[in-house]
Write a structure and sequence with these properties.
about 20% strand; alpha/beta
């Protein structure tokens, strides 16, 4: 195996954001019962980056200050309260982005503790950042 073969093994690409299509307007209350019938995997998107990578086509923003990030986390918690109206069996929790580790310790703690509390997530589930 030469270096080119090794490099090819790790090449991948995200779908370009223009590949995402609009979906019909569906009421969450119509969909929610089906979501909670199965193990549910919780993903929280943190779109914040220190700089924009040339290859990245994901939904990200640069230059966000702590006040803006705090507001974003508050919005996630508010959305979590709306989802928490029915019990769910959470199988995993993933924080992605962007660069989630751009958040400071206090922000990460607020995100994790609030989401886990609001959505009644078991601390023993699989967690990734």
């Amino acid at each position: 195996m030469n270096n080119n073969d090794i490099y090819r093994q790790y090449m991948y690409s995200y779908p370009h954001k223009t590949a995402y299509r609009e979906v019909e307007n569906v009421s969450f209350s119509e969909v929610k019962p089906r979501i909670y019938e199965h193990d549910t995997h919780l993903y929280v998107h943190m779109p914040f980056c220190q700089s924009r990578c040339g290859f990245c086509n994901l939904f990200t923003c640069t230059g966000a200050d702590n006040t803006f990030i705090d507001s974003y986390i508050d919005a996630i918690i508010t959305q979590g309260r709306q989802m928490a109206l029915a019990p769910a069996h959470w199988a995993s929790f993933t924080v992605g982005g962007g660069t989630p580790l751009l958040l400071n310790i206090a922000q990460l703690e607020k995100l994790f503790f609030s989401v886990f509390d609001v959505l009644n997530v078991d601390w023993n589930i699989y967690k990734t950042i």
